[in-house]
Design brief:
The complex is a heterodimer of chains A (962) and B (251).
Chain A (H helix, E strand, L loop, with lengths): L14 E2 L3 E6 L2 E6 L6 H8 L18 E4 L2 E4 L12 E3 L12 H8 L9 H14 L5 H7 L11 H12 L23 H5 L15 E7 L5 E7 L1 H4 L4 E6 H6 L31 E2 L5 E7 L2 H8 L3 E6 L23 E7 L2 H9 L3 E9 L11 E7 L4 E6 L4 H12 L7 E4 L15 H13 L3 E4 L2 H7 L6 E9 L5 E13 L12 H4 L10 E10 L13 H19 L3 H8 L8 E2 L5 E2 L4 H11 L5 H10 L3 E10 L7 H6 L8 E7 L5 E5 L8 H13 L6 E4 L17 H28 L6 E4 L2 E4 L5 E3 H10 L12 E6 L8 E11 L4 E12 L6 H20 L32 E4 L17 H18 L9 H10 L6
Parallel strand pairs in A: 2-6, 7-18, 16-17, 20-21, 26-27, 33-34
Antiparallel strand pairs in A: 2-3, 4-5, 4-6, 7-11, 8-10, 8-12, 9-11, 13-21, 14-19, 15-16, 15-18, 19-20, 22-23, 24-32, 25-26, 25-31, 28-29, 29-30, 32-33
Helix pairs in contact in A: 2-5, 15-24, 20-21, 23-24
Chain B lengths: L3 E3 L4 H10 L3 E4 L5 H8 L5 E4 L9 E3 L3 E5 L4 H6 L1 H6 L1 H8 L4 H6 L2 H7 L5 H8 L3 E4 L3 E3 H6 L2 H4 L6 E7 L3 E8 L6 E9 L5 E7 L5 E5 L9 H8 L3 H17 L1
Parallel strand pairs in B: 1-3, 2-3
Antiparallel strand pairs in B: 4-5, 5-8, 6-7, 6-8, 9-10, 10-11, 11-12
The chains are: A alpha+beta (962), B alpha+beta (251).
Chain lengths: 962, 251
């Protein structure tokens, strides 16, 4: 061993509680005081303002905080600041040369390797380290190097491509003098630069003057009566401003959160609309439910005090299994059988008659496993109150700030929703989980007013696991009746949906209308019945997660078809083909209330099979068998209803909220266009695609257009982002508003050219008088509109138009995904051989963004199928998979590249012909892979098909026929 | 409530701090202790950084053994020319731990203290008669794994170095937990110059175990004993059989 000599920099005398640490950050010498136990990431973010380094977990795993320590990548959450005394630190802010992106950053932009941007700084830092050590890595080496960097948006595919591009040393794309921003081109995303340079601004990055910090005290019991909540000791701690409980909420007469979708049970009775208290009072119903909140000067003080709140519980029997809900321990007095509703759709007697007389009936029981969304950015809020204007301000991680404003204002009993200003700045992924209104954000607002200080809360990853709305959790029995030619006669579905302990914002809508109306799928099934018991259990609330209802329906349909094919000896592809709705049958009225407007389902089925060489599969299967491997091929066809939703339909389905979207187009006097939209982008790239829509419609250079979103005071109207609705509803509003701009422009042009309005044509940014050929540019019209010295009589000056676009129907994207797997029966190890996704999203505005959505959606679908399971201990009700250590979702090493492709039928009612693309992957992928596994094994498994489950099946299952 | 940070320059200084300040916590790479510390919240403690103490560093080999300083990182062990030349299986093992960032900081001693039953290194140490030199004594790997290391090591005791026997050939195989990435199951197989084999198995949450085979005996004969000693499930036993089959070919 080397000798025990001290380096001169070290001495045994270093000791103080908050001494100064000196090190070098991005080439700049800094000296900061830091607590002895302070992690470097805290110092960087809170003391040095370097907020490009992010925090996504509390177990040292996600890699969002990756920085370089003396040139090597490290996680800044597992390093004490005092340990880096004298060291060189590089953060994402130090990577670019001035305003010129580093080639690695440029490669990320050129390959669309980022969506929400939250993981991006860590990814870039890790890539730089990899390429420094391994300049020419193989794909396997790249994926292995990303093991400690989690991404939930991209499926890693384009990140791998970016690294390959950067490693190739090819010159980055030169900045084009004019970017092709036409619809169908994929211009560089305009949001990328700030994310790649660490300049994104997420809620956790926002510091308000004098802000206090909130830490919630959460129930450790799944079901208990609260006998006593003693806050005295916690309240007496230094730095603690207040400890607030449900009693304080009650004293201010705040009733709690309700669900916005009313469902009627089959007997006509209204659903049991239980309220969710902002802080539990009397009783707790799931582990993690907030019981009290500590507001303190620092997060550390709040965290320390939170351990001193004494809660005396009287434990009650715990219910976690939704199938035992009826007759189980009662959660809510209003729902004595634990049913929120018992709902049905369709004529059961008729269906039963059809089934009784059918040549063949296939029955399945299946579970659509509960998953946890895990957007990489945890939920957060920073709330303040200005007594001078009686105005509340909330920065929050919401996908739909306008909906948040409306609901929170109602919950807190504000005079008007305009007394609340909600800003959703950059948001690091949502996948549905950031649609809903949760207690914590409301509590921060309420406490900020009550205490007269801004209140900031940032969830830990553990809190995300425990309290973000979970997804799926359906337990289903279904029967499919077929005639002797294999035609689908009827589908009968009886579903138990686990809603968790309380009703999340959209919870009741997902297993009813969003599910049952999709049960015809892309098929000619003549009759469908669906009965749903939605039940309460002592688990986290369940709500919409990427797809919401449609993945559950698709999984059921595609599973039961394969099962029917196995039982009848038919080829599963042929069985599908025989039942697909033919292209000439559109518009097609389904038996479940939807009118599909357009589609060509056979075309994407053919395309997917061709791309995946289905014809060659049996040969590959035979080859595999020679190597003692089991190959399987799985197909999944889907159609989904997107563009949620025509307001008249939404009203008929149980909400009083209009689901239009708003756009305001506002020209400045110097000819720049601001597009204000109610849609929110948290990875979807609206700042680019919405600008493309405006640029194309108005003939403008995209550089002259900026997109403003996420701020209820700047965009006064809006609904938000969910249900693959942004481009098809929000984007359509942009196009319609642009058309109004053109219409006003035509009036001005006609006036200036001394002719009738009808003679004015508009194309490519130019107004042309048909007869004379005289032209005026849109810039000239803008000048005239604001100059206001020579306008047609009665026309108001300026050029600004607002449209609230209400779609006339849902849009119906469809597609076919296929998957091929190979299984080693000795170990159960599964190899993904190929995954092909052919989707019909209508016209694609920005194909690279669309492809990225498919990659990410498929990755999440594969996660649900192979890895993800939210598990509750049936005895204690504890969530046993409440960290990245125990809850598996796909990492770079667990995925392969997805082969994507498109067919196109244009949506007849959206101005662009687009249909929506965000959820397709998560809908189509699970059955594709599960069918492939079943094909390999000759028997069907439940999700997630873990290696152990596959192995167990190999020990008993009949092998696929040779 | 207030914590104190110390960065002793010498091993003696570190031990003195551990003796005089309580409660205290030694931090080398910090990859296990810091996430725990930050999750459980602030606690009054003395944090003693030992990662830069020279006596805890160094990689050396003699004719029969390889010696690793306790504060050597997984990264350096994995990329050390000396380790790759003398015991490549150990280098490969080190590079299977965690992820690159964790490997840049995490140390072999830290891993042994944090997970004395089932860190990957335990499999190698058990198969290669690992010795652990501490500031107080010399321990066999079995001393560490038979009782939790925190109980085995005294509060002021630090691991200085680890020594392992140099086999003629060796192979480490691991079945990683799909979420955490740690070894749900790990098998280290080593062949000695006298052609005997040692197979050491780690299984998450259970005691590690080792089986020795005389020269000429097929590796598969170690299977049943390993399954019994480690209390493997049938699935784990299947994985083990697969590992052994592969080792039989590779060694």
């Amino acid at each position: 061993m080397s000798s025990d000599t001290a380096s001169p920099a070290l001495s045994d005398s270093t000791e103080t509680a908050e001494p100064t640490v000196s090190f070098d950050v991005n080439g700049r010498a800094v000296a900061v005081t830091a607590r002895a136990d302070e992690a470097l990431v805290v110092t960087l973010r809170e003391r040095l303002g370097l907020t490009g380094t992010h925090v996504g977990c509390d177990t040292g795993q996600c890699g969002a905080c990756t920085v370089h320590l003396n040139g090597r990548s490290v996680k800044a959450c597992t390093l004490l600041t005092h340990q880096v005394d004298g060291a060189h630190i590089t953060t994402i802010e130090g990577v670019a040369s001035g305003e010129t992106l580093h080639p690695v950053q440029q490669a990320f932009q050129d390959t669309h390797a980022l969506q929400c941007g939250f993981c991006t700084p860590g990814m870039v830092m890790q890539t730089l380290d990899l390429l420094d050590q391994t300049p020419h890595p193989s794909e396997a080496e790249i994926r292995d190097a990303l093991k400690g960097n989690y991404c939930r948006c991209t499926g890693y595919q384009n990140i791998v491509r970016a690294i390959q591009l950067a490693a190739s040393g090819s010159q980055p794309r030169p900045p084009a003098s004019k970017i092709d921003s036409a619809i169908g081109a994929s211009p560089p995303r305009r949001e990328d630069r700030r994310f790649l340079m660490g300049r994104g601004r997420y809620t956790a990055d926002i510091t308000l003057p004098g802000q206090a910090h909130a830490v919630f005290v959460r129930s450790t019991e799944a079901h208990a009566i609260l006998e006593r909540v003693d806050t005295r000791q916690a309240a007496a701690q230094t730095g603690v401003i207040a400890v607030l409980t449900g009693d304080d909420i009650d004293a201010d007469e705040i009733a709690g959160l309700t669900c916005s979708w009313q469902i009627l049970s089959r007997d006509g009775s209204p659903m049991k609309a239980v309220r969710r208290a902002l802080l539990a009072r009397d009783r707790v119903r799931f582990v993690g439910e907030a019981v009290a909140v500590i507001i303190a000067d620092t997060r550390q003080a709040a965290q320390a005090a939170s351990k001193l709140v004494e809660i005396v519980y009287c434990k009650q029997a715990v219910l976690t299994d939704p199938c035992s809900a009826v007759g189980g321990p009662v959660l809510h007095a209003e729902a004595p059988d634990n049913r929120c509703y018992s709902w049905a759709f369709g004529d059961e007697a008729t269906i039963d008659t059809i089934i009784a007389g059918a040549a063949h009936v296939t029955e399945v029981f299946l579970v659509n496993n509960r998953v946890i969304p895990n957007a990489l950015e945890p939920r957060a809020a920073n709330a303040s109150y200005d007594p001078g204007s009686d105005k509340h301000l909330l920065y929050t991680t919401s996908q739909n700030p306008h909906m948040a404003r409306k609901t929170i204002a109602e919950t807190l009993g504000l005079d008007s929703e305009t007394n609340l200003h909600v800003i959703s700045p950059d948001v690091g992924g949502g996948f549905g989980s950031k649609i809903f209104i949760y207690p914590e954000e409301c509590v921060c607002l309420w406490a900020a007013k009550r205490l007269g200080v801004p209140v900031k809360w940032v969830a830990t990853r553990t809190e995300s696991f425990l309290t973000d709305a979970h997804g799926r959790d359906h337990h289903t029995k279904a029967r499919l009746a077929l005639d002797d030619a294999g035609h689908f006669l009827a589908l009968k579905v009886e579903n138990i949906a686990n809603l968790g302990a309380y009703l999340s914002s959209f919870a009741t809508f997902v297993p009813s209308f969003l599910y049952a109306t999709m049960l015809a799928g892309p098929y000619l099934t003549k009759a469908v019945y669906c009965g749903v018991d939605a039940v309460f259990t002592n688990t986290a609330p369940v709500d919409a997660y990427r797809g919401a209802g449609r993945p559950e329906a698709t999984y059921l349909i595609e599973t039961i078809i394969d099962e029917a094919a196995r039982q009848t000896g038919m080829d599963p592809v042929e069985l599908r083909r025989r039942n697909l709705i033919p292209a000439e049958d559109f518009p097609y009225m389904t038996p479940v209330g939807l009118q599909y407007d357009v589609g060509d389902y056979g075309r994407h089925l053919d395309a997917a099979l061709l791309k995946a060489d289905y014809d060659g599969f049996e040969r590959r299967r035979t080859d595999a068998r020679k190597r003692d491997r089991l190959r399987g091929f799985g197909v999944s066809c889907y159609v989904e209803a997107c563009g949620i939703a025509p307001s008249y339909l939404a009203g008929a389905l149980g909400t009083n909220v209009g689901l239009w979207e708003a756009a305001t187009l506002r020209f400045s006097r110097d000819g720049h266009l601001q597009v204000l939209t109610g849609s929110h982008s948290h990875g979807q790239g609206h700042e680019t695609s919405f600008a493309q829509l405006a640029a194309e419609t108005l003939g403008l250079d995209i550089h002259h257009i900026s997109i403003i979103h996420g701020d209820t005071e700047r965009s006064p109207m809006g609904v938000g982002t969910f249900g693959s609705r942004s481009l098809v509803v929000g984007g359509s509003a942009v196009v319609r508003a642009a058309e109004k701009v053109i219409e006003k422009g035509r009036h001005i042009a006609a006036h200036l050219l001394h002719g009738p309005v009808a003679d004015i044509d508009f194309a490519g940014g130019i107004f042309t008088q048909a007869e004379t050929g005289k032209t005026l540019s849109i810039q000239a019209i803008i000048q005239a509109a604001y100059g206001a010295q020579n306008l047609p009589e009665g026309l108001s000056p300026g050029l600004e138009e607002t449209v609230l676009y209400d779609p006339v129907n849902f849009t119906f994207p469809s597609g076919t995904h296929v998957c091929e797997v190979e299984i080693d029966p000795a170990t159960g190890a599964l190899e993904l051989i190929q995954f092909v996704a052919i989707d019909d999203f209508g016209r694609q505005v920005h194909p690279a963004i669309v492809e990225g959505q498919v990659h990410g959606g498929v990755a999440q679908g594969l996660g649900q199928a192979l890895l993800e399971a939210a598990l509750y201990d049936p005895e204690t009700g504890a969530l046993t998979s409440a960290s990245f250590q125990s809850y598996a979702f796909p990492k770079a090493t667990q995925l392969i590249n997805i082969d994507t492709g498109a067919t196109e039928t244009l949506c007849p009612h959206t101005p662009t012909g687009a249909k929506g693309a965000g959820e397709a992957g998560a809908i189509a992928a699970p059955p594709a892979i599960m069918n492939a596994i079943a094909d390999a094994l000759g028997t069907r498994l439940e999700m997630p098909a873990t290696q152990e489950r596959i192995w167990a099946a190999c020990q008993t299952a009949p092998r696929a026929p040779s | 409530m207030t914590s104190h940070f110390h960065r002793p320059a010498t091993l003696d200084g570190a031990v003195r701090l551990l003796q005089e300040r309580a409660p205290s916590l030694a931090i080398a790479g910090g990859q296990s202790v810091l996430p725990d510390l930050h999750r459980t919240g602030p606690a009054a403690t003395h944090l003693i950084a030992i990662d830069q103490i020279g006596a805890l560093h160094g990689i050396e080999a003699d004719d029969t053994h390889l010696h690793l300083g306790g504060a050597e990182t997984h990264h350096l062990i994995g990329h050390s020319d000396l380790v790759r030349a003398t015991l490549p299986a150990l280098a490969e093992l080190a590079l299977m731990i965690g992820d690159p960032q964790i490997r840049h900081r995490g140390t072999i001693a830290g891993a042994l203290v944090a997970k004395p039953q089932d860190t990957d290194y335990v499999a190698a140490l058990l198969a290669l008669d690992g010795h652990i030199r501490t500031t107080r004594r010399s321990l066999n790997i079995a001393d560490l794994t038979n009782v939790p290391a925190k109980a085995c090591l005294l509060p002021d005791e630090l691991i200085i170095s680890i020594s392992v026997r140099r086999p003629e050939a060796a192979l480490y195989q691991k079945h990683a937990h799909p979420a955490a990435g740690y070894a749900a199951l790990g098998l280290f197989c080593a062949r000695s110059p006298d052609q005997t084999h040692c197979l050491a198995l780690i299984a998450q949450g259970r005691s590690p175990c080792r089986v020795d085979l005389p020269a000429g005996q097929p590796l598969a004969e170690a299977g049943p004993d390993l399954v019994t000693h480690a209390g493997l499930t049938p699935f784990e036993a299947a994985l083990l059989a697969h590992f052994i089959g592969h080792a039989d070919t590779a060694l």
